[in-house]
Specification:
The relative contact order is 0.14. The protein has helices at 19-33, 97-108, 111-130; strands spanning 39-47, 50-59, 65-75, 81-85, 91-94. It has 131 residues and is an alpha+beta fold. A five-stranded antiparallel β-sheet has the order 1-2-3-4-5. 36% of the residues lie in helices and 30% in strands. The protein contains three helices and five strands, in the order H-E-E-E-E-E-H-H. A hairpin with a 5-residue loop joins strand 3 (65-75) and strand 4 (81-85). It has one domain (17-130).
Amino acid sequence: MSTNSLWGEIPDLENIKTPGSMLAEQGEMLSEVTSGRLKCRIDRSQSNNRFTYEMKIVVPCLANYSQKILKVTHDLSIYPVMLSHEQSGREYTARNDAQFMAHLGEILSSEENRLIICGLNAQVRLAAEDE
């Protein structure tokens, strides 16, 4: 006698994008466009059913100096996702992937973060001149 699964259709894990994986993709892009001068680190923590990701820009040539730029929190169901822009203090709520990416784009491309990236690039250049 064979047993039928009563779990229903379980989604293919390969096709599920989490906020953490979307942050990691954007971190890889920053590293690419800065030729590795700036990188991103995603610190993940969990408390009960709450997941938190902190995205930091890291400067390897400056003893891995890091600057936190945003925080993302969600529960097991993933959505809604809360995004916090560290520099401006603005907070966003995303109810799906499209909203998450729109809010993430607004934060990453903000004037505050562009100033941080410019400043860190200048520090990298100064460190290279000192060598």
